[in-house]
Amino acid sequence: MTLLRVLNKKLDADTLLGLQVTQYSEKLLLAGSVPAQSSIIAKTTVSNLGHFLCMFVTGKYTTLQQITDKTLGALTIDDGIQHLRAQLIDGAGQKKLFSDYIPLDLFLSPGRAKANAANAYIDVLDTSVSPAREVALAAATGQTLFYAQEYEYLFSANSEILLDIKNDSLVANDFEIAFSGVRVLAAASVRGVHGKI
Questions:
Q1: Per the domain annotation, does 172 fall within a domain?
Q2: For 107-145, what is each residue's pLDDT tens digit?
Q3: Which residues on adjacent β-strands are paired with residue 69?
Q4: What's the rounded Cα separation, in Å, for the pair 196 and 183?
Q5: What is the CATH number of the domain that holds 184?
Q6: Residues in contact with 18: Cβ distance below 8 Å, sequence separation at least 6, in sequence order
Q7: Quick check: 77 pLDDT over 80?
């Protein structure tokens, strides 16, 4: 029996409309680029519409590094190694939500966003057996799995979700994180919606 059929048996239209008016599904995006061997604090705003109950987290990041090859010199390649680690912070009260800086590959899925162009550059220019070519080919074989990570936390209205993120690579790396959950509308917003129905 599908979920919809179960809901139809348990809830009537008025109840469903009442729930729809007070809450809805939402995603908040947090993205940025972390400079080489540096850190940034990225943020996204919850807004004053209402509280945001985060239920799942998904995200991706790059794994770029600079290496020196005796034939080709300094190259930026995708080495497949995690260079970013982060601390998630609730902007209301600056509450740290992780006990330490966590590598992004331990809490984000699908995870690594392959940068094939950097490795293709080596494949074209370097036909010999070299350390740069071996690293590029090994990194290119990685697989990406997708499974949204459960993470339940209630962020209050008009607050921010902060990410203190560090990069140990010799080049910049990018990241994107989506927080999926339910927006619980503020009373004022709900009254406004009721007035339009």
A1: yes
A2: 898 888 877 655 555 554 555 556 655 665 555 555 566
A3: 73
A4: 19
A5: 2.60.120
A6: none
A7: yes
Domains of the chain: total: 1
Give the separation between CA 70 and CA 81, rounded to whole angstroms: 21
What domain range is 47 assigned to? 24-196
Choose between 137 and 98: higher pLDDT: 98
Helices in the chain by DSSP H: which ranges? Answer: 3-10, 13-22, 116-125, 131-140, 187-196
Residue type at position 78:
D
Decide if 171 is inside a domain. yes
* Distance of alpha carbon 88 from alpha carbon 30, whole angstroms: 11
Q: Report d(CA 28, CA 56) in Å as an integer.
A: 11
- Pairwise CA distance, residues 54 & 69, whole Å: 45
Q: Could you tell me if residue 9 is inside a domain?
A: no
